[in-house]
Amino acid sequence: MINDKAVTKPKKKKQFKSDFLFALPYGVVFFVFVILLIFISIALSFTYYDTINVPRWVGFDNYVTLFTRDSEFMQYALPNTLKYGLIVGPCGYLLSFFMAWLLAQVTKPVRTALAVILYSPSLTSGVMMAVVWKVLFSGDSRGYLNALLINWGLISAPIQFLQTPGWIFGIMIFVGLWSSMSVGFLAMLSGILNINKELYEAAYIDGMKSKWQEIFYITIPSMKPQMLFGAVTAITGTFNASGMATTLSGSTPSPQYAGWLITDHMNDYGFGRYEMGYASAISVVLLLIVMLFYFVAKTLFTEKEQ
Question: Measuring CA to CA, which residue among 181, 161, 159, 179 is closest to residue 171?
């Protein structure tokens, strides 16, 4: 009589080896370009490193300077990043889910065309921001928005949208929301389309009466993995945004540091002043902020075991 355990064990070993080989290339790339670089950044954050001389150990001096003597970071970069992330992140996330839900209600050809249109800004936002948005918000009378407002008699002189601190941040929010339909949007659309239609039919038989109940009691609970993925992409996308105010205003830093984000501050010290140790400390702080919001999102969208 053949021993079933003896037959099953080699099959499981073989399957494990094949799965491991498929995952190995991604694992190597992820370790080299993500995990290893994170540990290198953490190590460099405790040093003074100017990219030429050997890193010199300074302990927590970079962090002490960052939180006690770096006024640009505490007054502008950190508050602007938190405001931008807390506005564009949740609003862009809700907008992505709402648009994905709307597209799921239309026919496939229309859905495909609209999905491509909505997704494309997230791929071309940098180029479009430099070309389209600068023309739209240009500070002379030839700027599209100024020309419209002058023609309608709402203003008598052009408004310097991209040079006025009060306007730049609002325009950044608008541009961020415009390009928020990223991979998370596609994941949520896929999740909605793969929900079993019989769940909706059974719910309506049991007394469900509105689309809102359908969304909250069936759609969202049935696609929590996609919702979590969308939340993660929204968090990383918004908190890692950089160069937006600089591109719009054409100056570094932007007027009165309006729209100056943590990544802009990090790039300024790392690639402008070549203080890589200090820039690494800034990157570690940004990583901790992103991880904090990630754990919040994970708590909200991870299914609890019964």
Answer: 161
Q: Helix, strand or coil for residue 56? A: strand
Kindly report whether the peptide bond that precedes residue 253 is cis, defined as omega within 30 degrees of 0. Answer: yes
CA angle (115 as vertex; 248, 230 as ends), nearest 5 = 75
> Which candidate, 95, 92, 111, places its Cα nearest to that of 103?
111
Domain ranges of the chain: 68-301
Which tens digit of pLDDT belongs to each residue from 145-156? Answer: 888 999 888 888
The partner residues of 47 in beta bridges, in order of sequence, read 57
- Stated as kind and residue range, the H or E segment containing 47 is strand 47-48
Which three-class secondary structure state does DSSP give residue 192? helix
User: In this predicted model, what pLDDT tens digit does every residue of 40-94 receive, in sequence order?
Assistant: 999 999 999 998 899 999 999 999 999 999 999 999 999 999 999 999 999 999 9
Tell me which of 1.10.540.10, 1.10.3210.10, 1.10.3720.10, 3.30.420.40 is the CATH number of domain 68-301.
Answer: 1.10.3720.10
